[in-house]
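Backbone shape codes:
===
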Amino acid sequence: MDHMHGVRHRNFFYVAVLVAALTSVALAADKVESIGPPPSGVSNDLRQAVEDKGYRVTLDSGWTGEFWFAKNLTTTKKDVPGALYPGLSDGEFVGVVNFPRGFSDFRGQSLPAGMYSLRYQLLPQDGNHLGVAPNPDFLLAIPAADDSHPDQSYPYKKLVALSAKSAGGNHPAVIAMEGGGEAGNVALTDQGYAVFTVAISSSSGSVNLGIIVKGSSSQ
């Protein structure tokens, strides 16, 4: 009887360990949560331009990003070969993001913790950029303090210079984009990129934007 009791005890212990391990894996899964408006440190113009509802994206690595997107994107009908989101305009304000622990952009550049505005930019299709990313669509991250007026438009070189401040170098801070999946979720691509998809209202209807929150061109 004592032997059987010991066996049952060990079996119970192994089951408990297995359940704990599986629970830990489940808790570590990528997730998206709904959050309130941006923090008070953001300019009033930026706060007025984005939705009161935001999204907290948490990856299994523990990395977190908090996103607030524009209330309404301006889209136009135009043909841009290879572009995922040809309706968006270069330099268009898309939203703001807070990186509590910083962020590694698609070039592998380190961005310090803080608030950034996000502006859409189609990567120039020249010899310096071909093959850099699977798609030519990017979001450029700009320190929010340097881009407090979302209606402001910038020429390409000015936009790049502002974004370069984010990483403290000569290259803009680039967040690559993918085709949108199920809104409000994070999914992995065949290349191992973690893609956060969000549905945003636009002048031509709702559009699902896919944003690569983990992955770089060095992979």
Summary: The chain has one domain: 29-214. Confidence is low (pLDDT under 50) at residues 12-28, 127-131.
